[in-house]
Amino acid sequence: MSNTTSGLTRRRGGGGGGDGDSSSNIGRSNSTNNMADSTPETSYESGENGHKIAFDPRDISESAERSKQPKLTLMEEVLLLGLKDKQGYLSFWNDNISYALRGCIVLELAFRGRISMQKDPSRRRFPLPDRVIEVIDDTLTGEVLLDEALKMMKTSEKMSVSSWIDLMSGETWNLMKIGYQLKQVRERLAKGLVDKGILRTEKRNFLLFDMATHPVVDSGAKEEIRRRVRSVLTQRTVVLNNTQFLPENLEFRYTRTIAMVCAAYAANVLENALSTLGHEARERAFSQMDELLGDYSQWPFGKRKSTANDIGANLPQLIGEELNKAKEKELQLEVVAAVLNVFTRLDSLL
């Protein structure tokens, strides 16, 4: 695989729209569903009357995990940007978003400290997307899609970043690995956003069939994501406010935001965050987007010097500060760079 970042080029056709199959994940050909969680399913504590009260300790660990993380995952943010607010569905012509969402799953697991590049000095002989990743913490996150992917990575052979994104997208000719495909990702993410109070579910008639749609209820959540995108792509000094969607104490706030913007670009939904800008401002924003994707799809980050419009002049310093605080996590961030490198190969229909 080439490590070039000079523009976006077309990926092979395969299963780019891989959400569509309505079959369930029951009966996967891999063994992930049979994997027992390391935490016991039931524990007991003594109540006031002396009776034992049963509880699942995984609920406690998952609640603790959620309290440390933003309200929305990267996948949910990208999906939300792509949804039509009132109609509640994605563009039927968007072929990129399914693949980009699988990439976001790998990004989210890396940011949460669940996976990293395999600690092997010889990995540098390979392009970033071809380097092997491994699970370094199999603690469940409480997010169903993340946990499903994490279990697969834990129980399978070690594979590269690009291989995992391909397999989860259904882009494989190997029948032994077809079970790695994550199905109905967009619908499952939308239902998760319904549970979080961001969307609601409706039935809409499309000629010969009914389809579930998910209009936006909490417009503030989507507008907050748009503000972050515009700050990164249009402001000389990038400032990210403290919100439930990006808490001030969240690790890698700026690196995570850049990853989200790059994922939105790869998913062909970035235009939705820039629709209020004039033509020239949008052009400058997309020029800055190309710069960011070039800078952060390589490792170490920022090897190229940005030249576009002096936008985001403080970003290199902010990212540098985040990296200096987490030098022991460089292998996790190398996964982030590898996913963004994979995104450079997605076809852009901007």
TrEMBL record:
GO terms assigned for molecular function: phosphatidylinositol-4-phosphate binding
Bias-annotated ranges (Polar residues): 35-46
GO biological process, one term: Golgi vesicle budding
Keyword Membrane assigned: yes
Sorted UniProt keywords: Golgi apparatus, Lipid-binding, Membrane
Location, primary (coarse class): Golgi
Membrane topology term: Peripheral membrane protein
Chain segments carrying region Disordered: 1-68
Family designation: Belongs to the GOLPH3/VPS74 family.
Function text: Phosphatidylinositol-4-phosphate-binding protein that links Golgi membranes to the cytoskeleton and may participate in the tensile force required for vesicle budding from the Golgi. Thereby, may play a role in Golgi membrane trafficking and could indirectly give its flattened shape to the Golgi apparatus. May also bind to the coatomer to regulate Golgi membrane trafficking. May play a role in anterograde transport from the Golgi to the plasma membrane and regulate secretion.
Record protein name field: Vacuolar protein sorting-associated protein 74
Taxonomic source organism: Rhypophila decipiens
